[in-house]
């Protein structure tokens, strides 16, 4: 299970990579493995406002649909439009080309509510 150290993690298995006041959001390696082959990714539009812990889209796999819950609040600045034609990028490369959205964070303090890689790995171990 890959959990890059520089990322922050939510209990809903999303990650955030912080770049200045922006947060790049994606689903974790664990989540994509649990879902299996991803067939559809439904994401918000550029300009949409995300509120921490609110649903902002979904990921559909062959046998299930998983809601995506925002790990941080902010305004959507970019959406990974490549996922519309190739949703399997989330399975193939969840931490790079399989990212979901980029947001301008409205409250960077929310990052303190997320887990470090070590804590996230412990969270996975406790829930397996």
From TrEMBL:
Domain Lipoyl-binding as annotated: residue spans: 22-104
Pfam families (UniProt xref): GCV_H
Keyword Magnesium attached: no
UniProt keywords, alphabetically: Lipoyl
Cofactor(s) demanded: (R)-lipoate
Textual note on the cofactor: Binds 1 lipoyl cofactor covalently.
Residues recorded with modification N6-lipoyllysine: 63
tRNA processing is among the record's keywords: no
InterPro entries assigned to the protein according to its UniProt record, in alphabetical order: 2-oxoA_DH_lipoyl-BS, Biotin_lipoyl, GCV_H, GCV_H/Fam206, GCV_H_sub, Single_hybrid_motif
CC terms in the record's Gene Ontology section: cytosol; glycine cleavage complex
GO BP of this protein: glycine decarboxylation via glycine cleavage system; protein lipoylation
Function, in words: The glycine cleavage system catalyzes the degradation of glycine. The H protein shuttles the methylamine group of glycine from the P protein to the T protein.
Subunit structure: The glycine cleavage system is composed of four proteins: P, T, L and H.
UniProt family annotation: Belongs to the GcvH family.
Name assigned to this protein: Glycine cleavage system H protein
